[in-house]
## 1
Amino acid sequence: MPRDLPHTLKKIRVGVIAAAGKGTRAYPRTSFIPKPLFVIEGKSILHRNVDLLVKTFGVEKIYVLVGHLKEQIIEEIVYIRNYFPKVVIEPCEWTQAGLASDVASLEKLIHEPFLTILGDEFYYKTDHEEFLKVLKNHPNMAASIGIVKTSLLSRIRKNYSVTLEKDKILNLVEKPENPPNELLGLGSYYFSTLYFDYFKKTPPSSKSGVVEITDVIDKMAKESKEGVYATNLSCEYFNINSMQDYYHAVYEVRNDLFPKFKSSLIIPTNNNARSITDVIVDFKDKFHEIIVIDNESKDETVALAKKEKVKVYEFHGDGNSSLLGEQVRKGIEYATGDILVVVSPDGSFRSKDYPKLLEYMKDSDMVIGTRTTRQMIEQGSNLKPLYRLVNLFMGKLVEVFWWGQEPRFTDSDCHFFSIWKESYSRVRLGLKQEDRMFIVELMIEIVRSHMRCIEIPVSYFKPVNQIEYRIRDMVKDFIKIFNIILSKKFMLGENRDGE
């Protein structure tokens, strides 16, 4: 195949995704999960970028540059191939000498123009097809880079800027202290095969000691007769440098999609006739469905729930309250919502705190209440100081054992929480606790599965049919929770990186 094909193609057939970097600014998570595998709404960033290349440009072959935790990247590639059986997706080893060198290492494999995307960049509602329009206007161009206009100069300082003459790029500046304009350079590049020639002509950076890709493009812009042109994109752009960048991306996407999500409330009952009506009425207008999962109540609980026209299912637990965990999991099986909320049936929580759970669900996998704020605890409830102290201590113990995941817990037994159904399905098989300790087990499973579980303060009211909580009960709970922590950390027989 000739070195320089005429640029009359209606699609770009070759793509490159750079997915090799260590992502040190997102540590500790990147010590066990590479950034291209961070999940946003059910898909990894790598999967989304493959999707972008194939559906926008008709790419037929994609080279994925791999390095850090490459086994995980390769495993994801195998998974992605199932969605694109006609596309060749091949992993290629990095050079460990920077992005420019990694791309240049593909010279013997690529003999035509190609589109490169950085593996830790996520584009939402993007119009990358603009690259094809620029190519049509400048069929012999040496390269084109994606840019967006932003008023946040701090974003430009973290990336690079460009100066233009119409749509022709005059020069690039890596991480400028004083950006010359509001144009933010992106990690989306169209390259002709001239890239390989100019890479060889570009000296290493005095700062990094390696050839920088922006320096290669800058040299192409200044010296090639074919020129480098800007592709103006309109999109929501997320450069996932840190965990906060990732949470921001998750939040923005979920916030945009939130009206489409459905919510299910699960109420596990067991002889709660005195409180069930109040609980249902309080929460009823805020959910798409309410599920009462009843453990063979002997009183009027079921009849009262049915009177409120909610879904009622029977759990065959012989009224045994020590099967609460199994009961809740059964109720979740019946739920059809995207967001699952579990609340106790005794009136100890109110729907006024539900909007807070929802807001934090936009960038978390699980949100659980904490009852440790004294001003939010009703006088006369069973939350005695010693009980709160025990829960606080056990929450902190979970933090210590999974320190690398950066959890923050102050309550290990709050029966008011929300979780994405997708997140729940990822940990479901690891849930074994039959009793009320299912909550701390679920918290641990979310954390040890590298997902995000956060606490928010919620109000706590005196429960109907309040049960006295004695010191020996606290000791028993302490022993149970400690055993769960030890078994999850050391004795499960699973290999979980990062623990």
## 2
Amino acid sequence: MRGLPTAVPWGQVVRFTVVGGVNTVTFYGCYLPLHRLLPYFAAYTAAFVLSLVGSFFLNTYFTYRTRPTWKKFLLFPLTQVTNYAVQSAGLVALVSWLGMSSTVAPLVAALLAIPATFVVSRRILRPPARRRGAADGTAVPADAAGQADPMDRVDRAGQDGASGRAGRADQSGATPPVRSSEPA
């Protein structure tokens, strides 16, 4: 059973909110010139995709300070699905149930969606706490399914397992950790 988080990562929440603002400006900055060249929906779609890619890299490097992977990149649009669902539900609730102005309600709904969208994006871009599993008892990074992330694995030659770049040096001289399912 997983325990509840002990503290809210406020620095990440603030950076996430800043990235959301930058993403909104990026979207609109792409949409306006594209709208001169393309029909409005094509311009909207192109601007959305461009801002989504930018948002992925900003959130990966700036908000969560982690490495991008193809898996994270392919899962990242789920954050937008979550954001849309929460904002839509909030919009309906604010306008229909609470009688808020439909001009102001989308902004309030967007603010109310930040926590849910943050949780989903953090889950996708930042692996959960490290699990025990290596033969020598060192922690091995785990993804959402409990599997070690290949981007965080260091092979026996001291190279980053995914890219071949020089990896972390083992100060003790011991064999670097491997997933528990692999032979030691």
## 3
Amino acid sequence: MTRKTIKALFLAALASIATASCELNTDKVKESIGQKVEEKLTDYASQAIDRLAQEAGLDTQTEADGKAAAAVEAPAGVEIPAPLTDRKEQILRRTAYTASYNSDTRLPNWVAWQLTAEHTSGPHKRGGIDFAEDEDVPEPRATDWDYYRSGYDRGHLCPSADNKWSEAAQRESFLFTNICPQNHSLNAGDWNEMEQQCRRWAEELGSIYIVSGPILYKGRHKTIGKNKVVVPEAFFKVVLCTEGEPKAIGFIYKNQPGNRPKGDYVNSVDEVERITGIDFFPALPDDVESRVEASADIADWL
């Protein structure tokens, strides 16, 4: 029990005693004497509780103050991973997200964005928007034709539903530099469920930071279309929250059908870094980054 709780209970009891002691007086006497008695008792109780708290070693700060002390102010761009030196990288800055594009694979290396509670809904839906080539990257590049009859969905990394707050953001989410070939069952199933979960977390927590991308294991990769768009073997998603006590969590999904609980996909951010070769959240203070990236407990988020 915190000092604040103890003090509140004690003061309530004393106030009740003060009021009860005046019940035999008339209303006017009760009002004047009862108020003075209550003020004196309250004053005395406050001093007594302070002394007791100090002797017992209780933290004299409130729970809210404690939470504020534990919070970390996220630096601008905290969601952006460290620069990549082992593969091609072209940084693309969009309205809602930032993408790292790899011209060798015709895929993003990663896509990163901040999702706030305010951005989890909006009037700008996906209806009538076509997938589009990203003319900011060199040819050859992914086109709609590469996906026709490929057997794969055009899977968003930064989801369309995270971009309903802005018409420009919604349209940019359909650029192929935000898209990967994805198994239909995964895209419509467990991957979609995780996207929905992230929006719920943003609504509940106020703001989260997300990085998502393809995983390419060593060896030859399947490709689709004349532009030879690489088909990922798996996908990752890492999530950071700096509201209150900082925390982070990672997920890895194989690019195949599945219908499993979210907990089955959980990995620490450290493990996702090991598999992908990407350094996530490098702008965090080193001690905070080390602590949150070692954790992999879904219970901390549910």
